[in-house]
Design goal:
This protein is α/β, with parallel strands linked by helices. Helix content is 26%, strand content 22%. The chain contains ten helices and 17 strands. Strand 7, helix 9 and strand 8 form a beta-alpha-beta unit. Helix 4 packs across helix 10 and helix 7 runs parallel beside helix 8.
């Protein structure tokens, strides 16, 4: 039997949707976060970007407020990416930090403060694979102590945070990363923080240490989340979604996903019981670029409509779609929610948009008496037929009224108490 999740893991799953923010020196070049490595840039010349890092347009209050409107309950910000540049005051551990740039501001402090004011949980991304420190290749044990101390600064100096999100152990697959020491440092100062270590492209969903609280699936949402061994620690699952093909700011990457694909990815993650991080890359001075801001606003319209069905709900192993392969059910302690896909818009004899007529959708596992079913987007009642003895339910999922299309429509099922 699967064990019950720890309180911090349950609260993390309740948050459901997060915002991922990639920002660093690479953002000034606007060609992606791996540009130093992939474009084989001279390290010394590349790292001179620190002399131009002003963060002049970084407004943590605006970014966090926009994340909140998007529907994010937590934000993961890159405190240090693989380039090795820290966005916070390392108190002498490194001179490759924001305090040695023209910005001269602890940007992580500003970020945490803005999160707290808005009721958003701050998470700290930390790259473990590091191109800057020579210790990484030449004295790995010394590097691990450097890494541990950099994490200790984050754990000690910013008050309670939501979690730590590590990325890069996949670069040295067989190395002893001394995870007990690293994670032990976090537990000493942040006992309620989530610990997440990105498993990489080839080890999606794998648990690397008993302190891990959530496993990752990169830009891939599986059809099943691995929550741990029977009677072992329950772990959450998390997937990520880039709006185009890069994590960091890439001004010439025009290959943006459609809004439909973004919404469907968010819904599918919740369908399988995973959290999802929607990623943006700030530009070189710290702005959310207009197109990504627009995507955040658009997604926010859908999450505002779907709010009651998205966050504290879980996949329902008994109440299932019985026909349409993309429909599914999520349930909380009081209600069930039907996620209905592939509906059309209702037109007329001159403009036919595919939502006209009856559209029956069936489900099984509904043995409790249903008192009412209504759409979340307009509270309109839905005609339904139920056989509570057999547990079958059929609704008439009428199409969207003209002028509307929510991509995925959600029906609230009120069950008799």
């Amino acid at each position: 039997m699967m064990s019950q999740p720890l309180k911090r893991i349950q609260q993390y799953e309740d948050m459901g949707i997060g915002l991922f923010i990639h920002w660093g020196l690479y953002s000034q070049l606007s060609v992606g976060e791996w540009t130093e490595y992939i474009h084989e840039r001279n390290q010394q010349k590349y790292e001179q970007l620190i002399d131009r890092f002003t963060a002049s347009d970084f407004n943590a209050d605006d970014i966090v407020a926009q994340a909140k409107r998007m529907g994010a309950k937590y934000i993961v910000l890159t405190t240090k990416h693989h380039e090795g540049f820290f966005l916070y005051d390392t108190h002498g551990l490194s001179d490759f930090d924001v305090m040695h740039s023209p910005a001269k501001r602890d940007l992580i402090s500003e970020f945490v403060s803005a999160c707290r004011k808005n009721g958003i949980k701050p998470f700290f991304y930390m790259a473990t694979y590091d191109w800057h420190s020579p210790l990484y290749e030449h004295d790995f044990d010394a590097y691990l102590e450097y890494l541990r101390k950099s994490v200790e600064i984050l754990a000690k100096n910013y008050g309670p945070v939501g979690g730590f999100w590590f990325d890069g152990n996949w670069n040295k697959k067989t190395a002893n990363w001394k995870l007990d020491e690293l994670y032990g440092t976090i537990r000493r100062y942040q006992p309620d923080a989530m610990i997440i270590n990105n498993t990489g492209l080839k080890n999606r969903g794998k648990i690397s240490n008993q302190e891990i609280d959530a496993v990752t699936y990169e830009r891939h949402t599986p059809d099943l989340i691995y929550h741990g061994e029977n009677d072992g620690k329950y772990v959450a699952g998390e997937t990520s979604l880039t709006l185009n093909q890069h994590w960091g700011y890439a001004t010439q990457d025009l290959d943006y996903k459609s809004p439909r694909e973004v919404i469907e990815n968010v819904a599918h993650a919740r369908h399988v019981g995973a959290n999802i991080l929607v990623n943006i890359g700030l530009d070189g001075t710290g702005n959310i670029i207009p197109i990504q801001r627009s995507y955040m606003e658009l997604l926010g319209k859908w999450t505002a409509m779907a709010h009651d069905a998205l966050y504290k709900t879980r996949p329902d192993s008994e109440r299932l779609s019985n026909g349409h392969p993309r429909d599914f059910v999520l349930t909380d302690s009081n209600n069930s929610y039907l996620f209905i896909q592939d509906l059309g818009v209702v037109g007329n004899e001159n403009v036919v948009l595919g939502g006209e007529g009856s559209n029956l959708r069936s489900f099984v596992g509904f043995y409790d008496k249903i008192t009412k079913i209504s759409w979340l987007d307009n509270q309109q009642p839905i005609h339904f037929m139920q056989d509570s003895q057999r547990g079958t339910l059929t609704i008439d999922a009428n199409g969207y009224s003209y002028g509307r299309d929510w991509v995925i429509r959600i029906a609230k099922v009120d069950l008799k108490k």
